[in-house]
Specification:
Length: 176
């Protein structure tokens, strides 16, 4: 019995050593790899069912994890609101956390986005600039009743400049 255990242990150690040697010899590198993550994704305990195997009953759509891909919207500084709606409800994942009547979304993790004029005034920015800074630097102004660090800070790199302009145009056009 001891011989079998020792043989198994030696085999395991040899396997690990061989894997390390293969990795080192193959010259595997992490250069060019992205460390952009989703940030903290909140999960409310209210969204959990009761019982020993509780699982979320509803979770927001995650933001994109790959960058740069434009969905074919605008090319200038003025965005395409129609494409912005597509991004908001789809690839951007915005509607999973934010309510916006024009998008038909009811997310409650982040603030509702139907009336941002008051928050823009508090931040001292015109509405379009406020919306853009809220997307690319969400910690610059945090709405009352919400915590900093909940919205991912990666949208400035995971969305193209035209996609951000399109989102700004859509959310801006949706203001009451």
């Amino acid at each position: 019995m001891i011989k079998v255990l020792v043989a198994g242990l030696i085999g395991t150690i040899a396997g690990v050593v061989v894997m390390i040697i293969v990795i080192v010899l193959s010259g595997t590198s992490t250069s060019g790899a992205s460390s952009v993550g989703l940030g903290q994704l909140p999960l409310s305990t209210a969204a959990l069912s009761s019982g020993p195997t509780s699982t979320p009953t509803s979770t927001p759509s995650p933001p994109p994890t790959t960058g740069g891909g434009s969905t074919g919207g605008s090319t200038g500084t003025t965005g395409n609101a129609d494409n912005g709606k597509t991004i908001f409800t789809g690839s951007g994942g915005c509607g999973g956390c934010h309510a916006l009547a024009a998008a038909g979304t009811t997310g409650a993790v982040g603030p509702a986005l139907d009336d941002l004029k008051g928050d823009a005034a508090k931040a001292g920015e015109p509405i379009d600039a406020f919306i853009k800074s809220s997307i690319v630097d969400p910690g610059a102004f945090v709405a009352a009743g919400y915590s900093d660090g909940v919205m991912p800070t990666t949208f400035g790199t995971t969305l193209s400049a035209s996609d951000i302009a399109d989102l700004v145009a859509f959310v801006s056009a949706s203001q009451k």
